[in-house]
């Protein structure tokens, strides 16, 4: 298998365009989702972190 070396300069412009597009978008916050996450985290205090997150989703 042949592996090609790629310099950061080759993809820097693409990353910068993507970053600009992401940062320029309006941000939203769903209060209801935050409340549900908090409620779930309060009821699953003794469980592993990954399980708590999965149940909150």
Automatic annotation (TrEMBL):
InterPro entries: PFL_dom
Domain (PFL): residue spans on this chain: 13-57
GO molecular function: catalytic activity
Name of protein: PFL domain-containing protein
């Amino acid at each position: 298998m042949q592996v090609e070396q790629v310099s950061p300069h080759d993809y820097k412009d693409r990353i910068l365009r993507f970053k600009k597009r992401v940062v320029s978008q309006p941000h939203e916050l769903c209060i209801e989702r935050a409340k549900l996450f908090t409620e779930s985290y309060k009821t699953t205090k003794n469980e592993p972190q990954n399980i708590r997150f999965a149940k909150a989703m």
